[in-house]
Specification:
about 180 residues; alpha/beta; Spore Coat Polysaccharide Biosynthesis Protein SpsA, Chain A; 7-stranded mixed β-sheet; 7 strands; about 30% helix
């Protein structure tokens, strides 16, 4: 497998996961479970306004505070070589799922994994340069920018981002330990 650096943007403010209606503690737990899984695969750079102590083992870069695109750009600027950008709201992610996707991406200049609904994006990879376009409809924008869709099952934790209470509830039995500890 190619040597990857994984960039994970994490909002780290009281507004984190606002659509989910999450407490700050739940939002942090979701991000921590995502980072913990990624750390078992490759070096991780977390771009956040949260405390660096929230993400032991990761290199923490200050969020420039101008939205997701700026945070992703800041992380990429601190990485080198092949870079994977992973969203920080994947509490059911398993290291082997991420590792498998990165092995598949190693042979491609650019690749991506759509979210379970197929319209958003949870992971992009590039061995050269990125054209990150996260947000609503990002899967199509990544395709248009030359990212190749990786074959990842819809039920994979890598595709299971959490934006709504129903999404979190559907993953209840699969989330990482920090998220599980925050659930009622």
């Amino acid at each position: 497998m190619r040597e990857w650096t994984i960039v994970i943007p994490v909002k780290g403010t009281d507004a984190a996961k606002s659509r989910l209606g999450a407490t700050r503690e739940l939002a942090r737990a979701i991000a921590q479970d995502t980072v913990d899984a990624a750390l078992q695969v490759a070096p991780v750079i977390v771009v956040t306004a949260a405390s660096p102590t929230d993400f032991p083992g990761a290199r923490v870069v200050a969020d420039p505070g101008r939205g997701l695109a700026a945070a992703v750009g800041a992380g990429i600027a601190h990485a080198g070589g092949a870079v994977a950008v992973l969203l920080g709201d994947l509490p059911a992610l398993r290291p082997e799922e991420l590792r498998s996707a990165l092995v598949a991406a190693s042979t491609l200049d650019r690749a991506f994994v759509p979210d379970a609904e197929g319209s958003g994006t949870s992971l992009i990879t590039s061995t050269t340069d990125h054209a990150a376009a996260f947000g609503a409809g990002s899967a199509q924008r990544h395709r248009d920018a030359g990212y190749v869709e990786l074959d990842v099952p819809p039920s994979s934790g890598l595709r299971s981002d959490v934006d709504t209470p129903d999404q979190l509830e559907s993953l209840r039995d699969r989330v990482g330990p920090r998220t599980r500890a925050q659930l009622p």
